[in-house]
Amino acid sequence: MSRRRIPFVAVMIAWLATGLRAHAPHDVVSLVAVSPAFPTDGTLLAVVRLTDHDLFARSVDGGLTWTEYARPVLARRVLTLELSPDFAQDRTVLAGTATDGVWRSTDAGITWTPANAGIAGTTVTDVAFSPDFARDRAVLAATTSGLYRSGDGGDTWSSADAGILGPAPTVVAFAPDDPLTALAVRRRVHLSSDGGLTWTPVQELPAAARALALSSGFATDGIAAASFGPAGGGVVVTADGGASWLPLVDGLSDPAVNDVEIADDGALLAVSSGGTFFRADDSNGPWTSSVQGFEPPSPQSGDHFTDVAPSPAFGADGTVFVAAFEGCFSSEDRGATWRQADLYDLRTVKRLAVVAGATAGGPPTTAATRTLLASSYGGGPAARRLGDSGAPAPGAASSG
Questions:
Q1: What's the CA angle centered on 94, arms 92 and 98, to 5 degrees?
Q2: What is the pLDDT of residue 26?
Q3: pTM for this predicted structure
Q4: CA pair distance 100, 114, nearest whole angstrom
Q5: How many helices (H) and strands (E) does the chain have?
Q6: Strand-strand pairing, 28-34 and 327-331
Q7: CB-side exposure of 390: number of CA atoms within 13 Å?
Q8: pLDDT tens string 124-151
Q9: Contact 22, 340 (CB under 8 A)
Q10: What is the phi/psi pair of residue 396, to 5°?
């Protein structure tokens, strides 16, 4: 029996195409952050997860167009991304990473430097700015080695574990209306009344929290919500500052809630691992859900929607964004309908290989002729014959 010989170029094209995209046409978007001045500056940041590193995309027109503008943390997986409450003036962004601590940008995310002085651990699961950051420069960071606080915008950090009972908190938040009030949570809820310097344990939750959200008037109304990720547990809500928590289950068809936020008008917004957006118009519920306009869930992951981010003027503009395995989505009608944002240029080149002495779809040629094989995102493989100088050879064609 004769065996058909596969041309070397065909093998290279197959290699280039393998594993290059999680799905078409968009790559994995793990986080999306909305500028506190979004109604006027239209700024959004998103973390795009590639095979071997994360990069950032930025929009300055409310998510209509995006620019890929940095590989700030290379292979360091970004776990949390937070913008300063005075972002419009100070352009400060903090990123917590899985392997290299806190990174900081003071030019809206274009350039980054590590900001870990005083932090013992390398995994940072959450960061939080004081609402009075412009004056007090206070930031909290939850790490696997404990809780840390900075009073100089992240230049230096000190341990802030005084009063913490049990394992290190995984999520932390300042009250938006009081820089002295903060919550830090893993399974046990801790309350601070001195800006995160010391903590008091107040309640134990049914599981370890993955997300924590405080209402815009938390210091007065005491409303907060927490969710627990793919393991399930749904959403729990407090209306007494964290002293007691009750499940909010009515209408919550998927209890694997990866993220929950509380909008400026008191609406609760949540996204699930299974790929559903939920909204409750107040902390008493019920939840309503929507999937209209979302891309069908990819079979390549069981964990689909990871982050939800409302406009700071959600009550007026109804705008909210979702980061998902399937891309980035936005809604302008309080989450009733959705559209997908084009974060990624479909012709973004992800791999290149030069093959000497071969042409695409033809027999081997002289070693002086080389073929450039490029795999583009969403566009498939492309081939271009090169001359000795590396420039396209006369008559060379591109299929990309």
A1: 165
A2: 58
A3: 0.80
A4: 8
A5: 6, 31
A6: unpaired
A7: 2
A8: 999 999 999 999 999 999 999 999 999 9
A9: no
A10: -70, 145
